[in-house]
Amino acid sequence: MKKGLKIIIFTLIGLIFIGTFVFLFQKSKKKEIKYNEYEVVQMDIKRQALITGKINPRNEVAIKPQINGIIAELYKEAGQEVKENEVIAKLKVIPDMNSLSAAQSRVRLAEINYEQAYSNYKREKNLYDQKLISQESFEQITQLLNQAREEKSAAQDALEIIRDGVSSSNATSSSTLVRSTISGLILDVPVKVGNSVIQANTLNDGTTVATIANMNDLIFVGNVDETEVGTLQEGMPLTITIGALQNLSFDATLEYIAPKATENNGTNKFEIKAAILPQKDHKIRSGYSANAEITLEQASKVLAVPESALEFSGDSTFVYVKRNGNFTRQAVNTGLSDGINIQITSGLKEGEIVRGSQIIEKE
To answer: Is 317:331 a contact under the CB 8 Å cutoff?
Structure first.
């Protein structure tokens, strides 16, 4: 019984020893290295740049009041279309007291001057009727009366405009009515009924009652790195993609390249603008984030291989080309690259096989 147990134990030890030896032998064997293989093919290669930016209307107009006042009524809201000269809001006038006092003083002075001119006119007319003064003298006094009457009327109009926002002689063009200066879409109405507004002057930009833009004339605005701006030219085509619209893509044309760079996060960027072709089937909103893809260089129907097949040594470039079943190191000249494939200008022929990256096998 003991002898049989010993035999079993020695057998197990032997099997473990043999198994370990076989395992170590297999591990020590040099594995065959395998590589990806690529065919030299003819293709189109493009070097492209991806530019981030926004969609904006070309012209965005801020509508401001012509007088100081309070918003009495609003006739439009954001998202509505508006025609040129259409009324957006109505103001209740709050006259500036200094301006009001000056206008009232001007009216009083104009009335005094008119009364004096009228008195002089009556006296001169009486003398003229008696043929005691010349016609020329009478015409001069008549002209002075007309001037005084006109000044009185102008002073009264100025007072009414300051006090009421409209004059009785020109009621159709009331400055209490805020009108659109262009036709387009109202993007924003930042005021409410009851808000005070002021007109633009040398010290203040004035209150914006509404912002209006023509949404049929849109542009893409983005920034290009200084390393790429040298290859851009006005008139180049771009492809614009808006992620918010399920990656909607459409064409645009580069129309502006900034002559001066601006620093952005330590790098110099140049602003570009591209005109977007009108989109009938999609509603594009102002401020959408977008990407623009522009082709900087391209080569058509050229020989190319993946960049991973290249080997660099100093200033020279090599590939390993398969000939007679073996890979031979071959010097090549390269051209344009798209980041994945690279143009081969000399050293290879179409249809040849080159060695790529090593294949990593899982154990």
So the answer is: yes
